[in-house]
């Protein structure tokens, strides 16, 4: 079912809505990694420690923003941006809840994040992802992101992307 109406709006990184989406996102990507590499889901204690450790404060003004996509009255997904230098923003936490995937939310969230990055003064946007997140890599390629050299040393990053932001 495509063509559902999405509304994208800023959300405080520490709101209950943001926390629920962060938990869903982190659980999914962590479990996916552990199932692929170790044959089991994330240890619940580790999951709780990592969720708590990455609260998202970097996605707050004046150098960041978290966006939530709402679809059919549900908080369906998120995307965040944070400045990593005066001209560069990092795209992070791009996530759409499984029941709402394929309904147009991810491109809208990324476009809204790009607009937020421009508003923060960024001229380019970068991101990293993993080999197993093939859907994400395909999305970024479709949206004009080019694979590039690493911009960080994240232990789980295997692909880095960049996009120049046109002035709107």
From TrEMBL:
InterPro entries associated with the record: Acyl_CoA_acyltransferase (IPR016181), Bact_Acetyltransf (IPR050832), GNAT_dom (IPR000182)
Residue runs in coiled coils: none
Domain named N-acetyltransferase: residues: 20-166
PANTHER family xrefs: AMINOALKYLPHOSPHONATE N-ACETYLTRANSFERASE-RELATED, AMINOALKYLPHOSPHONATE N-ACETYLTRANSFERASE-RELATED-RELATED
Taxonomy, superkingdom: Bacteria
Gene3D superfamilies xref list: 3.40.630.30
Name of the featured protein: GNAT family N-acetyltransferase
Entry's Gene Ontology molecular function annotations: acyltransferase activity, transferring groups other than amino-acyl groups
SUPFAM superfamilies from the UniProt entry: Acyl-CoA N-acyltransferases (Nat)
Keyword tags: Acyltransferase, Transferase
Source species: Streptomyces monashensis
């Amino acid at each position: 079912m495509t063509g559902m109406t999405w509304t994208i709006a800023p959300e405080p990184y520490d709101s209950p809505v943001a926390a629920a989406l962060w938990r869903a996102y982190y659980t999914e990507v962590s479990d996916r990694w552990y199932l692929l590499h170790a044959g089991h889901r994330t240890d619940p204690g580790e999951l709780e420690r990592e969720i708590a450790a990455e609260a998202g404060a970097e996605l707050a003004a004046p150098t960041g923003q978290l966006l939530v996509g709402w679809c059919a009255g549900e908080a369906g997904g998120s995307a965040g941006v944070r400045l990593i230098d005066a001209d560069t923003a990092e795209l992070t936490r791009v996530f759409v809840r499984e029941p709402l995937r394929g309904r147009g939310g991810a491109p809208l969230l990324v476009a809204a994040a790009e607009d937020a990055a421009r508003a923060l003064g960024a001229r380019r946007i970068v991101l990293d992802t993993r080999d197993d997140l093939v859907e994400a890599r395909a999305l970024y390629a479709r949206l004009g992101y080019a694979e590039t050299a690493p911009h960080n040393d994240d232990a789980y990053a295997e692909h880095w992307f960049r996009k120049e932001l046109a002035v709107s």
